[in-house]
């Protein structure tokens, strides 16, 4: 069994409840009829900023190198990736937090709430969230390492730029296991392309794992009839604890 398939299988087993949904990711609230998002110009808030608020369908990105070629590993990063075997241990299968980039790569939707000095992103997967202050503050000088890091944001014209540092080294960038260290620095850019789409760009900079930064791009789709569902991860997953996944 390939590393890619094993990683996907473990992810699927850990997220069984979330996949009991229709319409690929999440069902419309009112019916099974697919409802198109309203056409028209980009909506804006009273402060003039594009309104990013809403539930967004995000593409599943199990491999962040797809479409951009092999990632520029350092010697440490390459050895770490080669030695990683999710069939032996995948932290998400044991209900540990996935980490910021892997969270953004899941096939389950997210919801954005936008206020003048703060943006919140709620993730269906793992029932987690990120709070992003946009009031001009800088990163703390010595942030405590966390699973999702510490984020601050600012507006570059009509693009929300989210700068995140302060990660622990317990997570992976994606499902197949591209590594990162506690030196990880992530910059995300959210741009409302039109009334129904959000252009998303994420740049990964980790000098311990990669010789240079790399960028992955994708597009989110607004789902006005969707709501986030409860996500339940079961720590006593027998497929994992009894080594039934091989």
Could you say which overall geometry the principal axes of the C-alpha atoms support?
Answer: globular
Biggest sheet overview: 9 strands, antiparallel
* Weakly predicted, low-confidence segments: 1-10, 12-35
> Would you tell me the structural class of the helices and strands?
alpha+beta
Report the total helices.
4
What Rg do the Cα atoms give? 18 Å
Q: How many beta strands in the DSSP annotation?
A: 9
Q: What share of residues are in beta strands?
A: 25-35%
Average pLDDT number: 86
Question: Main sheet: which strands, in order across?
Answer: 4-3-2-1-9-8-7-6-5
Straight-line N-to-C gap = 8 Å
Helix content: 10-25%
SSE topology string: HEHHEEEEEEEEH
């Amino acid at each position: 069994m390939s590393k890619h398939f094993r990683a996907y299988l473990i992810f699927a087993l850990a997220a069984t409840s979330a996949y009991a949904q229709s319409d690929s990711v999440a069902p419309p609230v009112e019916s099974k009829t697919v409802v198109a998002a309203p056409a028209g110009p980009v909506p804006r808030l009273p402060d003039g900023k594009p309104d990013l608020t809403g539930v967004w369908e995000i593409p599943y990105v199990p491999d962040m190198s797809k479409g951009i070629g092999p990632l520029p590993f350092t010697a440490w990063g390459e050895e770490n990736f080669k030695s990683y075997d999710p069939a032996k241990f995948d932290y998400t299968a044991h209900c540990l937090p996935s980490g910021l980039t892997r969270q953004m790569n899941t096939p389950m939707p997210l919801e954005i709430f936008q206020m003048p000095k703060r943006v919140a992103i709620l993730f269906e997967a793992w029932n987690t969230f990120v709070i992003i202050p946009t009031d001009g503050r800088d990163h703390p000088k010595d942030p405590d390492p966390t699973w999702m890091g510490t984020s601050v944001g600012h507006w570059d014209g009509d693009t929300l730029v989210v700068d995140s540092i302060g990660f622990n080294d317990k997570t992976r960038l994606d499902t197949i296991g591209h590594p990162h260290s506690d030196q990880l620095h992530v910059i995300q850019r959210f741009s409302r392309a039109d009334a129904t789409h959000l252009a998303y760009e994420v740049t990964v900079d980790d000098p311990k794992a990669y010789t240079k930064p790399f960028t992955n791009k994708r597009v989110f789709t607004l789902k006005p009839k969707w709501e986030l569902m409860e996500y339940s991860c079961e720590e006593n997953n027998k497929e994992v604890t009894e080594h039934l996944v091989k």
